[in-house]
Design brief:
The protein is an alpha/beta fold. It has helices at residues 2-23, 42-58, 73-80, 95-101, 109-112, 137-145, 160-172, 184-192, 203-212, 258-271, 275-283, 293-313, and strands at residues 30-35, 61-66, 88-93, 113-123, 125-129, 149-154, 175-180, 198-201, 215-220, 245-253, 287-288. The strands form two sheets. The chain has a six-stranded mixed beta sheet, sandwiched between helices.
């Protein structure tokens, strides 16, 4: 009788293992990760580092392909229109949202893409040119209160830097003139030359100029001072409610089955948990996040609504 009982238990266990094995989704042997920006910047750096670790962990081949153009719209659109078979993913920063809300597109960001995992989040930094005379946030508030028109540079229309500056204009009531560039480096060069008053950027993009003093660091855009940028005040001190965080995450076509989304989410969260990965993200002044598919979906939806509402209120057109 005892032997029969043991056999029954073993059979149930074996059945459970078989069901678990059957529940494993069919993952393509080659997975393309589209980065909708040029090589070299944070999107590309993070995407390639995670792809390498995913390949080692899963035994599948994760390949990063850069598809820049139209502020990320070209690469994002390709993923949005791809088959939901897990073979094509998107990795991008929050500019994937801001570059969408003010354009007429052949895809619907909110309907055609499914968030998989938001992997990192961090503050942006507000910097000024030395020629502007701005030395701190109080100087900025005084200048904007006086009615002076301030010029601000961005790496292009629709970028998170563009929308962050529009939000600052909304909260401050100041007068701004947008000067868009092709990339952060061109905007920084003109700022150092005194041709632009200020700029909002990811810290990593202008860290050298911040450390050298070629650009004056005024504040961070996070709700509270960031441990990644000690002794730098938060812009919300002078404009309560002003908050912007830049984030990075993975997306798939909306038709991708839930079990595949869950599989990728689990694998991504495991590979970004290493000390080396945390150090990589910290060098870019951003922190690792571990979110489920549901949490990532809610997070992205809230960010989308924030920028969609701003674009509508301020009549921001990117086309």
């Amino acid at each position: 009788m005892r032997s029969l009982w043991k056999l029954a238990v073993a059979s149930v266990a074996a059945f459970g293992l078989t069901c678990a094995a059957r529940a494993e989704p069919e993952v393509p042997s080659v997975v393309r990760i589209i980065v909708p920006f040029s090589p070299g910047a944070s999107n590309d750096t993070f995407g390639r580092a995670i792809a390498k670790e995913l390949t080692m962990k899963t035994g599948k081949n994760f390949i990063v392909e850069n598809k820049p153009g139209a502020g990320g719209v070209i690469g994002t659109g390709e993923v949005a229109k791809s088959k939901g078979d897990g073979a094509t993913l998107l990795f991008s920063s929050s500019s994937v949202v801001t570059n969408t809300v003010g354009r007429q597109l052949n895809y619907d960001f909110a309907k055609d893409l499914a968030p998989i995992s938001v992997v990192s989040e961090g503050p942006m930094v507000l910097v000024a040119s030395r020629a502007s005379g701005l030395k701190n946030l109080d100087d900025l508030k005084t200048a904007l209160t006086s009615g002076k028109t301030m010029t601000y540079g961005t790496p292009g229309l629709g970028s998170i830097a563009h929308f962050s500056s529009e939000l600052l204009m909304q909260r401050s009531g100041g007068k701004f003139q947008h000067v868009p560039y092709k990339g952060v480096s061109n905007a920084a060069i003109d700022m150092m030359g005194g041709r632009v008053d200020f700029m909002i950027s990811t810290p990593a993009s202008i860290l050298g100029q911040m450390k050298s003093g070629d650009l004056v660091t005024l504040g961070v855009t996070s709700a509270a001072p960031s441990p990644l940028l000690p002794n730098v005040r938060s812009v919300s001190e002078i404009y309560p409610g002003y908050t912007v965080d830049v984030w990075w995450g993975f997306f798939a076509p909306a038709s991708t089955p839930k079990d595949l989304l869950d599989y990728y989410n689990k694998a991504i969260n495991e590979v970004i948990a290493s000390k080396d990965m945390a150090e990589l993200f910290a060098r870019e002044s951003t922190e690792i996040k571990h979110m489920s598919v549901a949490q990532s979906r809610a997070f992205v939806a809230a960010d989308y609504k924030k920028w969609f509402d701003l674009a509508k209120e301020r009549n921001i057109k990117l086309d």
